[in-house]
Write a structure and sequence with these properties.
The chain is α+β, with helices and mostly antiparallel strands. Helices cover 12% and strands 25% of the residues. The chain has a domain at 16-69.
């Protein structure tokens, strides 16, 4: 899958939301408003996206049309 072939269906909001870091580390991930899991790394996030049908999701992580990184820097999960 590439960006030209795969576009989010809703033009208004990113379908993937990586929420703020939890106090114990990790970030909740929602895909199309459904809880997908608690990610502690990009690898976890990619696995959730793979399970949701986005097998080549690495290239989407920095695309704000696809991923909304809320209340924190992208790719940081509060596990340091």
């Amino acid at each position: 899958m590439n960006r030209e072939q795969a576009q989010p269906e809703d033009e208004g909001a990113a379908p993937i939301v990586v929420h703020r870091a939890a106090g114990t580390g990790g970030r909740r991930v929602s895909i199309r408003a459904r809880f997908a899991g608690l990610a502690h790394s990009d690898a976890d996030l990619i696995e959730f996206l793979r399970r949701a049908g986005l097998p080549d999701a690495w290239e989407l992580l920095d695309d704000p049309h696809w991923v909304d990184w809320q209340d924190g820097r992208p790719h940081e999960y509060g596990t340091d």
